[in-house]
Design a protein that fits this description.
The complex is a heterodimer of chains A (442) and B (247). Chain A is an alpha/beta fold. Chain A has ten helices and 21 strands. Classes of the chains: A alpha/beta (442), B alpha/beta (247).
């Protein structure tokens, strides 16, 4: 315990400097979360949920709070898909209005700063903020909540259907020569009954920038709402990224998430979706690329709380070099949740002898009339397929690239924003080409 | 065109081919027959460059060049084609994409301009008609969910597109009903030409009623034990392989 307390010591001082002020409810939320974080401390590998991911390097770093920073609009162009028709740019945890494009949205809709909304739209924000993110047991969510100030706020009124996607672009701006910074971006998405939207969260930083992004997103989907959510993580390979996304899906709503993890040194993504009304449907898709010494950890939970809810999950990983990946897919079917239809697939492609993955499906079923299937497959490139392609004239490198892209294609093809799909494909090609060039040279 | 001299091959330390000699000229059709385990499929795969086999002795010349020194993809681009006994399923890659990549790899090698999507579609349509292949098969993933007959027709379709100089059919007839067998044979016969050689590896004589060979060789225990003309195939059909193995 003494060791754990020592580890927390510098963090306690940091907690003293957390944002203050604002409404009473917001201050209470932060204070309670700060106490929870102090009580929980950082998870260790003795914690079942963190068995394969050691966050000691995070706990041991003296991060400084990310300072206010200005960046040029041109600087955004280098990042994968930065150009949605509506975009909210958040630099070092603060909304940058000069880079954002939010004019022309439907009446009654809100897409902007969470800090501003917590006073201007206090009734909605106060009702939902912090209601889904579980700070009682999740140390990083508690830490984020203790520091909650600004971030993204999306409110879609009942019945509003958005034709154009919304993008929330989180930039960690800095200089590679500077000491590591920390930010706690927070997003709250409230989708009214029968509303429809496509939302892209993109997390980026320039090469070599050292930082820790500790993000929390809450999504409240009203009855019959259709939310198509994309998360693209493409931060520097010197970045830590820990994020949790919490979804509450009401009756007949349909929530899809697509997680693309392309950057970061240590990345942990938690997604928790609660299907809390009959006929609610969830789709969780993901693709991650891990190379070098990177670690990508994904934990998903789909909680079937009501009857007649289908869920679909496809996660694929491409792991090379000395990289490690973790996938843990939990499906809970509550006693009341008869006629649940849950399907989970998790596949990993190991491109080197040193790449590893730890994968575990976890089914907790308390109802008796349900259909749950899960499958995990880990493998290397199919040698028979490589030979088949070579026997038709493709070089080894061409055959390998074709098979890797076919593997990733199943996830990328489901992206329903065409420019994002194109950008992801190009990025995947670029990154693989760089990695494979190293393999070929070795 | 193809000169095989005393070819010896092992797989997993087990000797399978124990000295094969075979000479094939352009324009000829050779049938390689033999009982199960005789090494006839091994011969086909070694010629295509399958990595599972080690050549421990002998030589293979293709147009005077050392074929064994070439990678499998180089052999393919130089005009060697093997129709697989068990075509591989490749999820996520459409047949059209795969075939276009294969065709353009070869065209690039020959210094010809690569075909664009429209040109490829026109060419593939014509070839598909020849083999009674449903256009829909082009947009399906390579061999995925194909019936046995569809897979074999897809192999011959690839052969028709790639127009190899040396085609090796590895038990292309196995598992085909009579209609599919006729379609596949028609496809192969359409490709017979004075510039092209075809090696047909088969267990049964049936296919040779439709693809009539110039020469028939019988493989047994890793060696060619008998060679003759098409009448040898009929003799095998009547007597079985026992009398050859016993000899």
């Amino acid at each position: 315990m003494a060791q754990v307390a020592d580890r927390l010591q510098p963090w306690l001082a940091t907690l003293d400097g957390r944002p203050r002020g604002g409404s009473r409810w917001l201050q209470d939320l932060r204070d309670q979360a700060a106490s929870r974080f102090v009580a929980l401390g950082f998870p260790t590998v003795r914690d079942e949920e963190w068995r394969f991911t050691n966050v000691a390097p995070i706990a041991a770093t003296a991060f400084r709070p990310a300072p206010a920073a200005r960046i040029d609009a041109e600087a955004l162009n280098g990042f994968v898909y930065a150009d949605a028709p509506f975009r909210l740019v958040i630099v070092n945890g603060r909304v940058a209005p000069e880079l954002s494009r939010t004019a022309g949205l439907p009446t009654g809709m809100r897409f902007g700063s969470l800090a501003a909304a917590s006073t201007e739209h206090a009734d909605v924000v106060g009702r939902y903020l912090g209601q889904l993110a579980d700070t009682a047991s999740r140390a990083f969510a508690a830490l984020n909540t203790a520091f909650t100030h600004d971030g993204a706020y999306v409110f879609i009124p009942d019945g509003v259907v958005l034709e154009q996607p919304l993008q929330i672009l989180f930039v960690s701006a800095g200089d590679p020569s500077q000491a590591a910074t920390i930010s706690h971006p927070r997003s709250l998405i409230v989708a009214g009954d029968r509303s429809e939207a496509r939302i892209v969260e993109t997390y980026v930083s320039a090469r070599g920038v050292k930082h820790f992004t500790n993000a929390v997103t809450e999504v409240v989907a009203g009855e019959g709402a259709v939310i198509d959510h994309y998360k693209v993580e493409e931060e520097s390979v010197d970045a830590f990224h820990i994020a949790s996304m919490h979804i509450h899906a009401a009756r007949s709503s349909n929530v899809s998430t697509h997680a693309f993890t392309l950057g970061g040194r240590l990345v942990r993504n938690d997604i928790v979706a609660v299907l809390d009304g009959e006929g609610a449907e969830a789709t969780l898709n993901g693709l991650y690329l891990a190379d070098g010494d990177r670690l990508v950890d994904t934990h998903t939970t789909i909680d079937h709380a009501k009857p007649h809810c289908p869920s679909h999950e496809v996660y694929k990983g491409i792991i090379g070099g000395n990289a490690r990946a973790v996938f843990n897919g939990k499906i809970i079917v509550r006693q009341d949740a008869q006629k649940t239809d849950a399907k989970q697939t998790n596949r990993a492609l190991l491109l080197s002898d040193h790449a590893t993955i730890n994968t575990k499906p976890q089914l907790e079923i308390f109802a008796d009339d349900v259909k749950c299937t899960h499958g995990a497959a880990i493998g290397q490139l199919d040698e028979d397929a490589v030979f088949y392609l070579r026997a038709r004239g493709l070089t080894f490198a061409e055959a390998r690239d074709l098979l890797i892209h076919a593997f990733a294609g199943e996830v990328i093809d489901r992206v329903r924003i065409e420019p994002l799909k194109v950008a992801l494909e190009a990025e995947l090609y670029d990154q693989l080409a760089r990695d494979l060039a190293e393999v070929d040279a070795a | 065109m193809l000169d095989i001299k005393n070819l010896q091959v092992t797989a997993e330390d087990k000797q399978i081919l124990k000295g094969i000699d075979l000479h094939v000229e352009a324009g000829e059709v050779h049938a390689i027959m033999g009982p199960n385990g005789s090494g006839k499929s091994t011969l086909a795969r070694v010629l295509a460059g399958h990595p599972e086999y080690q050549v421990t002795g002998g030589e293979v010349f293709y147009d005077g060049r050392d074929l064994l020194a070439l990678d499998p993809d180089e052999r393919a681009r130089e005009g060697v084609f093997m129709a697989f006994q068990y075509p591989v399923e490749i999820a996520g890659v459409t047949n059209a994409y795969f075939l276009k990549a294969a065709l353009n790899a070869k065209r690039k090698h020959q210094g010809l301009p690569e075909l664009d999507a429209i040109e490829f579609l026109q060419l593939s349509k014509a070839k598909a008609k020849l083999l009674q292949i449903d256009q829909a098969m082009l947009s399906r993933a390579v061999n995925e969910g194909f019936s046995g007959g569809e897979k074999k027709r897809n192999e011959i379709f690839q052969m028709a597109l790639l127009e190899p100089r040396l085609a090796i059919l590895d038990e292309t007839d196995s598992g085909l009903d009579i209609d599919a067998l006729k379609t596949v044979s028609d496809g192969v016969n359409a490709l017979r030409s004075p510039e092209r050689a075809i090696i047909v590896v088969t267990h049964y004589q049936r296919l040779l009623n439709y693809i009539v060979p110039d020469f028939v060789h019988v493989l047994s225990g890793g060696r060619i034990v008998k060679s003759g003309d098409k009448s040898l195939a009929l003799e095998l059909e009547q007597k079985g392989y026992g009398w050859i193995e016993a000899a």
